[in-house]
Amino acid sequence: MNKSIRFVLASAAVLMLAGAMSFAQSGGEAIYKAQCLKCHGAAGMAETPVGKALKMKTVADPIVKKMTKGAMVAATMNGTGKMQPFKGKITDAQINDSVDYFRTFIK
Description:
Layout: H1 2-22, H2 27-40, H3 49-53, H4 62-66, H5 69-78, H6 92-103
Helix pairs in contact: 2-6, 5-6
């Protein structure tokens, strides 16, 4: 019986740690993955079918590298080119957080 209790406790500990790890991603990363990934790609390189079809600029593009955070937030809120506006679809804080996450790709 002692082994059964230890097994249950060990299993519960593993499940709790796994759950905690899933919450480890930042809010910006979660929003980016939910809203931006399909076009901008996992690392902002627009390597997705949609990104390629729309001929999106990548984080390596000098124009993107020069954009301020404010300009990126405005582009995300209001849309730009073929990018849809996200104002009203997600919160301003979520837009800010996703832009912060996207900017981590710029080197």
